[in-house]
Specification:
It contains six helices and 17 strands. By secondary structure, the protein is α/β, with parallel strands linked by helices. The chain folds into two domains: 137 residues, Probable inorganic polyphosphate/atp-NAD kinase, domain 1 (Rossmann fold), CATH 3.40.50; 138 residues, Tumour Suppressor Smad4 (Sandwich). Strands 1, 2, 3, 4, 5, 6, 7, 9, 10, 14 and 17 form an eleven-stranded mixed beta sheet that branches. The longest helix is centred in the N-terminal third of the chain and has 16 residues.
Amino acid sequence: MTTTIRSCALVTRFADARVAESAGQLAAHLAARGIAPLALDDEIDRFDGIEVSGVAEAELAARADLVVAIGGDGTLLYAAGLVAERGTPLLGINRGRLGFLTDVLPADMLASVDAALAGDVEVDQRRLLAAQLRTADGRVTARGLALNDVVIQKWQSGHLLDFETSINGRYVNTHGGDGLVVASATGSTAYALSCGGPIVEPQLDAIVVAPICPHTLSDRPIVVSSRSVVEVRLVERPDTRAEVTCDGRVLGAMELGEALLISPSDHKITLLHPRGYDYFRLLRSKLNWGRRAFDLPR
């Protein structure tokens, strides 16, 4: 990475005192180095006297040369939504619970940010998924981007959702269950994993299509090319309605006769990792691979 960094946006959630502490520490460190720290307008008073410039959410990615997300994967996904159409590089500091995407430990935060400022990092580009909601006559009513996944799920608890999927215009299956996760390789370790889907190496050009709590045991996750277009339509039954989300953000409601189309996006997210980043070491750490049952904390 050779871009000169003059400003750095800090994306975080201050409800957690540990997160707030890290954000304040990093803001002071950046200011001391002559890098302008930026934050959302409604959060600058949380920095306790440190001079931080407030920026509107829509302008944050345009004003920043680097975005640092401090928190869990949810915080990084929110930050990814801000930079999705601009390609601003994104570094994740793990102050959450699991952290597949926020892979920098708090103790390494300042050194990792300094390395990013110096361009001494590994650059990892991840393609996004594009989602569209369409009416029966083909009119697009909503568009969204997702780094992890696009999810269609039942509107009401206790009700099965009946829907059918097609891939590249070819009918695949009619499902009954709680919904469907369409995940990128990046998102294979998120919701899709809890649905029994496989872990997919992030650089593999693949999409995981995983039913949520399927009514039929033979309805299993499948892996298709990342160039595929996945189409989902609701099947008629009383009170049929679904909700569609992109990385947990609501895209819209889906009614009978409407369609959800998920395809590869032209946009990519640029993630930054410390030198020596090892995806499989990350998996071992987060999933406790290689540890015997009696070695795990009780």
